[in-house]
Amino acid sequence: MDTSASDKVLARLKSLHPVEVDLSLERLYRLLEKLDNPHKKLPPVIHVAGTNGKGSTVATLRAIAEAAGHRVHVYTSPHLVRFAERIRVAGQVIGEEEFTTLLEEVEARNDGDDITFFEVTTAAAFLAFARIPADLCVLEVGLGGRLDATNVIDKPAAVGITSVSMDHENFLGNTLGAIAGEKAGIMKAGAPTVIGPQTGEAMGVIRARAADLGLKPQVFDEDWHVLPHLKGGSFRYTHGRCELELPAPSLAGEHQMINAGMAIALARAQKAITIPDAAIRAGLGWVRWPARLQELSGTQLNALLPDGASLYLDGGHNPAAGQVIRSFLTGIDPVERAITLVIGMLNRKDAKGYLKPLAGIVNHVIAVPIECDEDPAEPGFLAAAATDVGINGIVAKDVPSALKMITERAHPERPPFVLIGGSLYLAGNVLRMTGELPA
User: Fold this and answer.
1) Which of 23, 228, 357, 375 is the most exposed place for a label (fewest CB within 10 A)?
2) How much is the average pLDDT of 270-279?
3) Which domains are delineated in the chain?
4) Rounded to an integer, what distance in angstroms lies between the CA atom of residue 381 and that of residue 201?
């Protein structure tokens, strides 16, 4: 798909406010007023914040609502390959021509005023959503919550806060409590609120905010529960008298059952649309969310590995993501299969914190550079970080070279298990290589 037209507009928009992140709502409110306040003309909104799991929760919620026959607008970030992936209008990723036209309209209405890149693209999403009928709109917070550009919805149909952990400390604060306070800023008086798994410090801050608003949130393992079955790959969701026996979501990893629980709790908490239990079951079966423990098969990268090798892709990039990956990888028999992590990360991420949970599970780490306009970590730094936490770390010039190295060193009777991870930028680069573009 040719994205050159929208890319040119996006490049111009980046120059309006060169600071990458400047959390505020004043600039966006001014632009939305010029656009005749499209954020006030949306279908019922479910707003989701958190550090880990919010994207998977949004994807599962969308799948459930669409399985019930509803038209759903969805706004997510970041994208993997194409910026337009962030805006899904009534079930479909926005078309390139339509996206370019919207961006140009918003650019013209803004008339050169100071505005951040994320604010102006969020305004474009709201404009798209306001013009096309739908039954539900699901918004994923971009960064934080309280001052995030998505936090201009006065009366959401429901609010969700997934697990909060350390990330983006330079913008949100250097304590878990400070970060939780920013996430809790999306809660609104009168809006049903669902809370995912939290540590004590984060939970205390969220409860205090809820109390100030007169809310009684629905809390994981207090009000709603997820019980994975040891056999059969299914799980049980319970909330009061509601008890559902459900198939495991199609997204890999036991943690996805908790994310599915979040989506189910939100679907049941909102009262704007009807979602029967049958739609919950159906939605869990076809939910897709690229680069979240996504298995790759039949691609040009798979062809670089020995027969029988497994290749997975994940965009998680913080210590909590490392814990999730560890849980996933514990199901791999270390006697039968050697596990290699091909890693690329940004400099601002906690590489050792991400890698430490993988010590004793991952046999080798191969660090590669990332093609992006951010500040990627040097592969040598990542390899040293792996060695420091007890994993053998080496470097390769790129992902294909790393896979060839794995093949050269593979045991003839033990097909390797390979995970490419550490960055959504790296994940996007891999999806470009394979041609498996998010749709």
Assistant:
1) 375
2) 96
3) 4-286 (3.40.1190.10), 294-434 (3.90.190.20)
4) 32
